């Protein structure tokens, strides 16, 4: 059953940055978009490239492999070649800790 787990500290992920974590056998990424922390699958649904190696512009993440784009808030595909969305995960911040429900 999914439960909130501490994954990172807020100081680890500065504004506009993202970082990959391995949690329960999953690869997830936490991004900081102007102080809002978002968690989502770290593997591109197109050809399994690591999304943490991509480029973040606001909520738009561009995969470095083939330029596919995702909205990291909704998980939706914004630009092909990916056709399937990425999973997103609820996040809460408690003091300096970032907790993700996985
Ligand atoms: S692997 Fe991400 S766009 Fe192709």
UniProtKB/TrEMBL annotation:
It comes from the Bacteria. The keyword Iron applies. Residues 5-100 form the Rieske domain. SUPFAM superfamilies: ISP domain (SSF50022). Its cofactor is [2Fe-2S] cluster. Keywords: 2Fe-2S, Iron, Iron-sulfur, Metal-binding. The keyword tRNA processing does not apply. GO terms for molecular function: 2 iron, 2 sulfur cluster binding; metal ion binding. PANTHER family: FERREDOXIN-RELATED, RIESKE DOMAIN-CONTAINING PROTEIN. Belongs to the bacterial ring-hydroxylating dioxygenase ferredoxin component family. This is Rieske domain-containing protein. It comes from Candidatus Gottesmanbacteria bacterium RIFCSPHIGHO2_02_FULL_39_14.
């Amino acid at each position: 059953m999914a439960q909130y787990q501490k994954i990172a500290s807020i100081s680890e992920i500065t504004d506009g940055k993202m970082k990959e974590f391995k949690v329960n056998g999953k690869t997830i990424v936490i991004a900081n978009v102007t102080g809002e922390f978002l968690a989502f699958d770290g593997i591109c649904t197109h050809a399994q490239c690591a999304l943490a190696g991509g480029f973040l512009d606001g909520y738009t993440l561009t995969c470095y492999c083939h330029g596919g784009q995702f909205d990291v808030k909704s998980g939706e595909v914004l630009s092909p070649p990916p056709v399937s969305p990425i999973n997103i995960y609820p996040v809460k911040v408690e003091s300096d800790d970032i907790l993700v429900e996985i």
